[in-house]
Design a protein that fits this description.
This protein is mostly helical. It contains eight helices and six strands; from the N terminus they run ββαααααββααββα. It is about 60% helix and about 5% strand. Strands 1-2 form a two-stranded antiparallel sheet. It has a two-stranded antiparallel sheet with strand order 3-4. Strands 5-6 form a two-stranded antiparallel ribbon. A hairpin with a 2-residue loop joins β1 and β2.
């Protein structure tokens, strides 16, 4: 028994294409906004602040995610025989999480200046929802038959059509479903994060820092399995380096937040 790959990733509503990749991103974003609103309001935040932030974060995140993907896969878009306009074909896949996080955070910061909400509190409120959104977004990779792992014959192996198998792997039919691993990891991490936040009150960016560390940990595992073509540094995939840096950044941010929380507690 294996996990089948969806036979189609695009449906048409008349002349309008409905792409599974985009629908998964939209669904994840809507859930993240809904959960973020509830958590932010529970912290005393204004109604609608998370939605206002999302209006800025989503387009910034898409631009950042695409830019990161194009830069780290430049050989796919530039050079002899390449079509420059492929750079803008986001609907075909190719949104890198790390770029989306960085630019999305920039968008949220701008929104906090425009709409006058507390950035630190909002960041902690939306952290679990981001994990859920990223996990659901990975279903888009399943529909596109991309970003899977090494060949395997485990019972939950993912069947990949011949046309989507990377060079050198044409003879293999089933692979590790890294989309599923990341989906399950992110949903579990979100639940753990909400439990820890409820139990220990992770304020002062500590919930957001925990999100960074949790996501980076899972990403290092899935990245070690993936076989899609990728550039590397010293023989290690670029995204693996980024996952390590994000984890370190999250740890530093958590330390900073813990100091701020301790100082705030001492003033009471």
């Amino acid at each position: 028994m294996t996990i089948p790959s969806p036979p189609v990733s695009i449906w048409y509503l008349g002349p309008i294409p409905l792409r599974a990749y985009a629908l998964c991103i939209i669904l994840g974003a809507l859930i993240a906004i809904w959960l973020g609103e509830k958590r932010f309001q529970a912290r005393g935040g204004a109604v609608g602040a998370v939605s206002d932030a999302a209006v800025w974060a989503l387009p910034f995140g898409i631009v950042g995610g695409r830019a990161y993907h194009v830069i780290t896969h430049y050989q796919d878009y530039f050079g002899p025989g390449k079509d420059f306009w492929d750079v803008f074909k986001v609907w075909e896949g190719g949104l890198a999480i790390f770029g989306a996080i960085a630019f999305g955070a920039l968008g949220v910061w701008i929104a906090s200046r425009v709409h006058k909400f507390d950035l630190v509190t909002l960041a902690d409120a939306i952290a679990p929802g981001i994990l859920i959104a990223q996990g659901i977004g990975r279903l888009g990779n399943w529909f596109n038959q991309e970003l899977f792992g090494v060949p395997t014959d485990v019972p939950w192996a993912l069947a990949i059509d011949f046309a989507h198998r990377p060079a050198g792997y044409e003879s293999f039919e089933t692979f590790h479903p890294t989309f599923l691993y990341e989906l399950l990891w992110n949903l579990t991490a979100a639940a753990v994060l909400m439990y820890l936040d409820k139990t220990f009150s992770l304020t002062h960016m500590r919930a957001f820092a925990s999100y960074l560390m949790l996501y980076a940990t899972g990403r290092m595992v899935t990245e070690s399995l993936r076989i899609d073509p990728a550039n590397d540094i010293f023989g290690v995939r670029v995204n693996m380096w980024m996952a390590i840096l994000v984890f370190i950044g999250g740890a530093v941010l958590f330390w900073w937040g813990a100091r701020r929380a301790k100082a705030a507690e001492a003033k009471r």
